[in-house]
Amino acid sequence: MGGMASAGPLGQFLRSRRERIDPESAGLPPSPIPRRGRGLRREEVATLAGVSVDYYARLEQGRIGNVSDQVLTAIEDTLRLDPLEREHLRGLVNPVPVRAPRSRPAKTGARLGLRTLVEAMDPVPAILQGPRMEVLAWNRAATVLLADFGAMAPADRNIARWLFLDPVTRTRYPDWEEVATSTVAALRANHNPHRPDGPLEKLVGELSVASEEFARYWADYRLFKHGHGKKRIFHPTVGVLALNYETLQIADSGGQFLSAYTADAGSPSAEKLGILMSWGREPIETAKTDDGEYRTE
């Protein structure tokens, strides 16, 4: 991950954002000095944001205390941050104190009501995930469409592990790179440097060693929050389906979210999805928590 790994989280984030901005698009004249790296230099960000070069350099180094809202807004505008990135930056600069700083529990489970809901959504494919992309519950339709999560070892029931370590996903997702980068970016957005999360750090470390692509995407420091959109999925029985996905954040769950997949009514994908769901009518065991018991939060 190069030089970014040696910087603190704030420095990593700010550097990643200025490196992606083309100086010419920022209205800067051609530089008489050859540029050694991509994007904007520190001093250019400082000038565009209306702060001193020394101040901005110390900010990237994490050597600034409280930063005014006016200065933060100027830097955010200069770096063209979107709302999620602005929220992330402010969390890095001014972390919200917590009464009892504690790490997230290493294991999270699907409470009975959520697991029952996921199963009841069949034949709509649905998956419940934790903040580290753990697959906590799924239904028969999701098994037919995506993967047999029940056949995986509990430790392997993780969308990030599946995407980067199972070659079949490169066929299952025709737009694999888009899916993979969004998954890594969602992990990044769920990582709070001010709150220890040993299991997430272990996951990131293992995948960074096992996959050069994962390491590169993590170093890009892109942020993403699951919402809604289109996703293409290939199934060997019916070919490529163009599906809508909707993501629902689950209240009082420690960051769990439910994803469901549907097809536009009357579309070829709706016909294909109907064929798949009728073809896969045999019962399939759905998820339990790692210890085989239902767990409430």
TrEMBL record:
Can you give the residue ranges of the HTH cro/C1-type domain? 35-86
Task: Cite the residue spans of the region called Disordered.
Answer: 18-39
UniProt xrefs under CDD domains: HTH_XRE
Question: What InterPro entries is this protein classified in?
Answer: Cro/C1-type_HTH, Lambda_DNA-bd_dom_sf, MLTR_LBD
Database matches in PANTHER family: BLL4672 PROTEIN (PTHR35010:SF2), BLL4672 PROTEIN-RELATED (PTHR35010)
Protein name (database record): Helix-turn-helix transcriptional regulator
